[in-house]
Design a protein that fits this description.
The chain is of the alpha+beta class and about 70 residues long. The chain is globular.
């Protein structure tokens, strides 16, 4: 892969609160760079990030960038 190859990214927005959720879900949100509702974070699209998103799918949504 060359240095100027485009890296796929995914943007997620937090839509739910981690209050009254298991501690691991709150820590997963923090790992995704989210800590308050309606905040967005753009991350590299890797299997690890996709797995984190799947664990808190009820608290986040994937934002479609145009």
């Amino acid at each position: 892969m060359s240095n100027n190859a485009t890296v796929k990214t995914v943007t997620v927005e937090q839509i739910g609160s981690p209050i009254r959720r298991p501690d691991v879900q709150e820590k997963t949100l923090i790992g995704l760079g989210l800590n308050k509702r309606h905040r967005r974070s753009t991350l590299e699209d890797t299997p690890a990030v996709r797995g984190m998103i799947a664990k808190v799918a009820h608290l986040v949504r994937i934002v479609e960038e145009n």
